[in-house]
Amino acid sequence: MSVPTLEVRGLAYAYPDGHQALFGVDLHVHAGERVALLGPNGAGKTTLVLHLNGILTAGAGTVAVNGLPVAKKNLQEIRRRVGIVFQDPDDQLFLGTVRQDVAFGPANLGVRGAELDRRVMAALDRVGMADFVDRPPHHLSFGQRRRVAVATVLAMEPEILVLDEPSSNLDPASRRELADILRGLDVTVLMVTHDLPYALELCPRSVVLSDGVVVADDATYDVLTDDELMRAHRLELPFGFDPRRIDSLPR
Amino acid sequence: MGAGHGHRLHFHGHSPVHRAPAHLKLLALVAFMLLVVATPRDWYPVFAAHLAVLLSVILVSRVPLRYLLPRMVIEVPFLLFALLVPFVAHGPQVEVLGVEVSEPGLLAAFALVVKGSLGVLASLTLAATTEPDEVLRGLQRLRMPALIVSIMGFMVRYLDVVTGDLARMTTAMRSRGCDPRSPRHWPTLARSLGALFIRSYERGERVHLAMLSRGYDGALPDLRRTP
Fold this sequence. Notes:
Membrane topology (chain A): Peripheral membrane protein
Radius of gyration of chain A: 18 Å
Keywords (chain A): ATP-binding, Cell membrane, Membrane, Nucleotide-binding, Translocase, Transport
Number of helices of chain A: 10
Oligomer: heterodimer
Structural class of chain A: alpha/beta
Largest interface: A-B, 41 and 33 residues
GO molecular function (chain A): ATP binding; ATP hydrolysis activity; ATPase-coupled transmembrane transporter activity
Strand order of the largest sheet of chain B: 1-2
Pfam family, one (chain A): ABC_tran
CATH architecture of the domain at 6-88 and 160-245 in chain A: 3-Layer(aba) Sandwich
Largest sheet of chain A: 6 strands, mixed
Function (chain A): Part of an ABC transporter complex. Responsible for energy coupling to the transport system.
């Protein structure tokens, strides 16, 4: 099989205060896949995400992106390859206009001039926010800011897009619009979420992280319908939602 | 979490004052302030001239005085201090409205009030006619160190976010029967300000993480020149 886009092997990590968050995580994501990372609060999902682009350094084990190991000397390239969209768009959009915010990542990679403009507009086009390019981000609605946050990362042309709780705090319409956008993107996606219907809708495959280890890695439908697994790891479907009663999923 | 509600100081317009380059306006403001401060306190006609110049700029900018004057309440603490001066200063006494006050004190208070008000009104005029982002660009053109300009940029960007946080915290306090205005609840208010500080600090850390994730290496790329 080809080199996986994301390869995590035996990853373990303890915080400086001694609290151990990950106990040997193995995870492979191949090009073009959309994978949901599920798990209860405190399972170590965010800790895992912060390892993917070298913000945290593995205590043991390795992370590689398209064969390139996450190590100090590769950080710049790793951060281009792995685009993380954080949960609160206000953390991600910190400059005066949408254009500057989207340009920030590619400019850090040394992109300048016309090429920078092209990347900014292309990224904003992909999330349907091109008309807002000269607006200050704090004047946008929450859903719009989330979409711009996705664009800030797309402008870096990443090989894998990592989304932390993409549907949180969105109204149903914005939630669906974001799903349409994500489905339309031609990138590999790893999506951390508590929103199980959203995972089923968008990601054919799900990985369940619980207490710092991977406890399941299977088709999302099979994970969500495995009642025993779900109960054991504090995963619950919203009231009235039953994956068995959905006849067709959007592709 | 809602979107910001626009500008508290900026007054939208297209007058020549609005269109003038920000760095020229900044230089003009600083020059004007220095001139006002350097004017001896008893040259009354000169102060009248300063005010006339300022008012004519405001007239040209078409920002209504009704918009600027309420925003001058920011200087009220200084005015209170100025009011005290004639009562506590030494020197020959004069009688004003039947109260004995110090003559040099009176003059000092007059100078403080006039110079302060001229300065505040001039700054408000700049703020009303120039977008915050333009002010930053102007500072950059005046060769203000990039680090200071970017710190000010962050301040402008997060002012709404932090005041929004504070507003939600006070709403939550009010909903639980605490009135932040009453002195009895000031200790609670102080604690919540502490919490706000921690929150903002943590947000700063998250922003930094998000910046690192996009390849930030310690120097902000120059993005302000992009069209």
